[in-house]
Amino acid sequence: MSSAPADKMPPGIPFIVANELAERFCYYGINAILAVYMTQHLQFGQARATEWQSLFKFAALFFPLIGAILSDVFWGKYRTIMTLAVVYTVGCAIIALDMGPGFLALGLGLMAFGTGGIKPCVSTNVGDQFTSKNRHLIERAFSIFYLSINIGATVSIYFCPIWLEAYGPKVAFGVPAGAMLLATIAFKLGRDRFVVVPPAMSQDVGKGIAMFALALVPVLGIAAWVYTAVGPEYRTFAALMTLLTLLALVVVVSLHTTVREALPFELRQWMEEAFTGDSLRQLASLGVLYYLFIAMFWSLWEQSNGQTWTLQATSDLMDKHLFGFLGGVPVLGALASYEMLASQVQVVNGLLILALIPVFTFVIYPLMGRFFVVTPLRKIGIGMWVIAASYLIVAMIEERITKGVTVSLWWQILAYVVLTAAEILVSITTLEFSYRQAPLKLKSFIMAATYLCCQSVGNAFTAQVNSAMVKPLSVTEVSAGAETWVKFTDVSALQRGQKIDFEGATGLQIVEGTDTGRGLNGTFLIAEIDQAQNRARLADTIHQAPVATEGSFTAETAKVSTYKLVGPDYFLFFAGAGAAAALGFMLVAGFYRERTYVRMAEGT
To answer: Which pTM was predicted?
Structure first.
């Protein structure tokens, strides 16, 4: 179809935006309640739940590499999106079955593959609608696109926790699955309005896909084996390095051995364009910025998105009454009794995005421009310092909760304000920056290999920290009753408010409260320490109430552990890691030389 006039948005943009809104409703809705579902319904420990969710996000942000290659090389964006949307929807449906950890892992795997394959195609499809005549509208289009993400995310993050509490996992996960179906329909309706950039291959496509699969499946299998074979201290990093090394080896073998001659001509041509010359140098330069530094931004940001920040908010010591009382008088009448659910708190991020994007566009960026030239790399550098500062706030909150002091939710909202400012500076900027820096035939691939894969690496870092920080405890006895006391060989290193995880068959059941009837599994708190008898009393993480149990502890089949990063130390660790990454980015970014690649206008 013909291009849009230079002063108007291309006609395919509304359909892309509608698709993204519905698909993001699905993704963020499921992600919003995932940690709470795992800890409160499946009785996962908090570190295990964070590790699982980080690995899910890692996969969802790694598989864009696969989707990008399918799109750029074999199928094109439209067919790739339509095919993988089916996989995505099936994965969501399996999660909604609520049939235990095994089915959850399968559903999350399919969902990750589906959303990963779609993600680079949809975002680069925005840029593909423009030419050099209307390139001045690209920034506005990406802002609208980003707004659609946050509208979909905001609505689902607010309602999915309500559905989980009121109707259970089947409805809470099932509604997002329906939204994914709507996303697919919206995209199909715009088929004839899109500017279509054809894939690199037009011949021997079947042979090319077969060779691609033959190389990819063993790589993924070996990386998965490494993850299971290596101990928790290093398993995520070991699997990640194995994966990246094997992928690089596949490229080297394909281009520099006799395998090269067996490749279909167009596939070989695409690989040479992607992995030699200027393209390889561009990919390597971006990779240094993204993987070594910007990935840490995503490690911090993702934890506010349904993970450790949400788990922090589950505690009753965080007062989630937004309006409360002043001198015994309701501040806003009936609204004084309104209490947010822990999983809903993250909704403020989407609302703040909607509010702050215009503020940054029309106020903050022009104000910054009075003092220095506002470049994408400078925005990113500032944003990385800002997100590190947000973790100082949540560390302060955690310190007070650990000491048993009630904290207003407004403190976490303040942390979200700071984090959202960082997101606008970094996320929107890197989205557009990645697109502009990518050669025309490699848009989806470069977007996946930089903007998305860097988020994947950030989640891998979070998963690795949560795996490595788990420290086994030696338990000699657990005394059941109205209060549950755990006897250790030594309690000198333990402190009040510290988290204790129970896994496996403990032989004990909870007999009071909302958890009545379930085993003593998941995360609990140390409420009191008896130094004389080397024992500690348990409390639950939400209400800080005594844990009443019955049964006999079976040390042979139970696993008891705690965390090396206690209380605020966890968030302070990530604040320090974020600050170190920001400093490194500032030192390295000055050596990067920016380029811009967009389609030329038709007839020029």
So the answer is: 0.87
